[in-house]
Amino acid sequence: MCGIVGLYLKNDALRPELGRLFRPMLLEMTSRGPDSAGVAIYRDPVGDGETKFSLAHDSAAHDWQRLAADIATALEASARVRAIDTHAILVSDADESRMRARLAEAHPDVRLVGSGTSVEIFKETGLPEAVYARFELEAAGGSHIIGHTRMATESAVTTAGSHPFATGADLCLVHNGSLSNHNRLREELVRHGLAFQTDNDSEVAAAYLTWKLRQGYSLKRALEDALEELDGFYTFCIGTGDGFAVLRDPIACKHAVLAETDDWVAMATEYRAIARLPGAEGARIWEPRPRTVYSWGPDGFEGDEDDGATASSAQATTVRPAAERAAAGGVH
Amino acid sequence: MNTLDLEALGLRAVNGRLHALRPETNERRWRIENPRGAHAIACGLSSPLDVEIAGHVGFYCAGMNQRAEVTVHGHAGVGVAENMMSGVVRVKGNASQSAGATAHGGLLVIEGDASSRCGISMKGIDIVVGGSVGHMSAFMAQSGSLVVCGDAGEALGDSIYEARLYVRGEVESLGADCVEKEMRAEHREALEALLERAGIDADAGDFRRYGSARTLYHFDSDQAAAY
Amino acid sequence: MDQDTPRTLPRLSATFDPHTLSEIRRAASTGIYDIRGAGAKRPLPHFDDLLFLGASISRYPLEGYRERCGTEVVLGSRHASTPLELKIPITIAGMSFGSLSGQAKEALGRGANAAGTSTTTGDGGMTPEEREHSRLLVYQYLPSRYGMNPDDLRRADAIEVVVGQGAKPGGGGMLLGQKINARVARMRDLPEGIDQRSACRHPDWTGPDDLEIKILELREITAWEKPIFVKVGGSRPYYDTALAVKAGADVVVLDGMQGGTAATQNVFIEHVGLPTLACVRPAVQALQELDMHRKVQLVVSGGIRNGADVAKVLALGADAVSIGTAALIAMGDNDPALEGEYRALGTTAGAYDAWHAGRDPAGITTQDPELAARLDPVVAGRRLANYLKVMTLEAQTIARACGKNHLHNLEPEDLVALTVEAAAMARVPLAGTTWVPGTGI
Question: What is the pTM of this model?
Fold first, then answer.
């Protein structure tokens, strides 16, 4: 149980302000999630052939330079690293799977929490205000950011159990709700070769999407399948390289609200998180409908149903239950 | 007109001020500024006050309202006017889910749309929605009236008892034991009165009436699937 | 074959025992699941499987009657300006007017007052008689919200947000037609004579993060005066307790599967939930880890029957217990003196659980005026007060024998277990050994 928030800047001039604008959004959700907090910020995209790896360690004094040097040597790749508190951002032209293998082999105490061309993931136990300060996020700029404040339900309060969970290159997920069939799904995903760090239901949701994407499905299709295969209550906010997507389960008990102005698009579990944004008073405000994938960014989804309410840049696809889709001839 | 700045005073001070007023007070008109989505604003009022809230509110605004008239100049979060006993709550914008939940009386007017579960478990309240309502509206609705000028989402009136539902637009689907019913003169008159009280301009003749088929009133294993 | 030839004795199956066979026949005949009242009836690990270690050479007892053994408890000290101050750590659990007669509710109030403790409303709201007869009244806030109103909220001494109960964690309430009489129907805003369906989830919040906001609203409506209890059926007591605390609860109430209900499906009662014994240590652990033990109080219910049970639950770390079924028995429910009438109903004294049918010969779980008149509230109230007194004295006797000057000073180390299951659930050693099974996990 938690608070989730997301901010996507339509106005590039606001990019240097991203961290400052987002801070009150995350902090407003503190009462919903006092146990831990995390963000995925999209900024400073790396060049062709390079990948950003978000790494974390239990200690803020970890020797990241030594790790970078080891990567450079062992993988014969470029490796430059920037440390921030218990995390580090490593940029390398090494292949992702080789990087994973090397980290597991030579640096087992380091957690790989995300990767991509622009995403950086930071998450720790503690109050959102403290977590935000540790990772110097107030001064951070970028194009978009999603965040999460956590009240642990059925799993432990640990750093690894915090959201966002990475599901692929530049892809990550934050979740408000409680799944009910995640244990069986986890076993199945393990059989398909996915690895888990926690007993957390949200990690299973993230891994499910990862698995679907690895099989070649689009994110849209993966989310549609999630509606059928994930059981329980959930509102997801998924960060993508271009923006973010929002999905609510069919029963839709976990509240979510969306807001848009000419300058930004925001999502939050509660409106009061959005109320702090400049222009919030005059923003268009609406609720995401259940079973509907909403997404922002130039690389949006092919919607075959427009939600009617979206005169915005958002594209929305309402997903009919599988049985109905099959009867109607199926839609990809 | 008294003004209270929620941002400056905090929720307890604002609600406490309103709760301290006696029913005979002549300080009847109040304006609450800077609500910024805060929760439980103007909940538990029991005097015939006139409260205007200048902005969007969070969850449970005007919860358990008695006798007061509360107007939200913006959108309302989850459970607006939940368990209201009497009085009037008006939302100029949209309302989130569970609007008017379990309420016993009074009038709730939502000029925009209401989300899912509008009027869930209602126990006598009259709700008039200028726009549409979401899925599972009037779930287990026991008594009172729900008027929807727009459309209704899936499973309208699921497991309904004796509440009366009037919908002008499309009903995506009806819930267990909810059926369309004949609109007779008495219903048209009641509907006209509700629209009039709500200040919404609509022709009662354009609405259809829905209510309980009463097949779930006595437990029968053949109906078990409906449970 | 010859009549003198030895044969094996007819043997009944343990799997297809007579009760099971009768249920299969009943199901085949009616096509409806069996509905009944009361809690889980099958044998379960329970507090009888624990024993106290009394005073010995290393530990010295207190003199009975002369050397004080305190029993008082305060519930709701965390946030409320007026917490509940009880003379004894035994409260009366939530039971509705509707499932019980007005006379029975009055008797509960009288007995609780005499003992210096509280009663609790149920799924139907607060009656004026109940408020009048009970000095300390906890008002339940349930998914159905029958009869809920702010005036009663403000008249209550505490508010109990009910997430679930032990007999049916995850289930809604149910009251069958015979008990929806005119008065009950009016209180619940339902047509007379119908079968009531109740929701299993609250209508306007789901999850502890939203419960926090709901609790805020309830506090705002009652000026932060009243303690807020959160009641949940035994299921995931460790997580549920932690979440209740995080959502802002002042008191957590845990109800194990032996906890009674007015009516629900038998299959729910017997096959969903945890034995009360298994609920306590995980809940206390959650409180301790949050540094909230004794700051957020824990009340445990579900099959509490005597002072030994009270002492054991407190020793495991709870602050108080709550009784439901036991209170009804004390007042005269299932009395053998009425055996003829039980037989006429197809049952026997001690087994009568068709409380939903409203034909209770004892006049307790009924709305029928003639039957209800059989219960004299003053007499029944006195019986309840007597019973509460005995439970308290028994608990004090045990506590003094363990050297304690207050019931709250009982601790797990005062206990041992007779069975492996009880040892594992209570996290105390098997008697005569140092072995606590399951602590590695």
Answer: 0.92
